[in-house]
Amino acid sequence: MQKQNSCVICSKLDFVIYFSHTPTKIGLEVSADKTKYMVMSRDQNAGRIQSVRIDNCTFERVEEFKYLVTTLTDQNCIAEEIKSRLRSGNACYHSVQKLLSSRLLSKNVKIKIYRTIILPVVLYGCETLSLTLREERKLRVFENMVLRRIFGPTRDEVTAEWRRLHNEELNDLYCSPNIVWVIKSRKMRWAGHVARMGEERGCIGSWWGN
What we know:
By secondary structure, this protein is mainly alpha-helical. It has eight helices and seven strands. It has two domains: about 1-60, no CATH class; about 80-195, no CATH class. Helices cover about 50% and strands about 10% of the residues. The strands form three sheets. It has a three-stranded mixed sheet, covered by helices on one side. A two-stranded antiparallel ribbon has the order 4-5. A two-stranded antiparallel ribbon has the order 6-7. β2 (about 50-55) and β3 (about 55-60) form a beta hairpin. The protein is elongated and about 75 Å long. Residues about 1-10 have low confidence and may be disordered.
């Protein structure tokens, strides 16, 4: 196992060397300060080298970094990414909170605000998310919070007191698919796009693990 891991690490280092030398042929230069590398493996001992030195440049190893607004970790953990998405969604929600509470706007307009302003922030790149039940629950809690702001409280028929809507009542009022269903639908659509691609495309190799 140690020898196999070493071979994998060496192959990755060869790629880094190739990557660092190739741009100079076309007049580009790799910035060592901005270039990092990460070892993605379930093996905790894989790639113990903390930094790689090539020529006069040192490339730092990191445990996570952001790429195209997506947080990637060396353990391929999705929990941090979901937290980051929900923080961005909460910031977007608070920016339009007054609109969602306004009596001048209809419920349909408020739902459109949610679906066109808040939801895209949370669902950016969701086709690649591998959700667990815990993450699905967090997403549903966030969506229910927004929907409660949109639909407001209701008067209890028995006690005649105002109370907040239950989850089942929110599902009945919100006629559109919930956030988890939207993610699964987009993942299936993306899988269909990948399946129809030609074999020369890089996505096919990643899809089948080649």
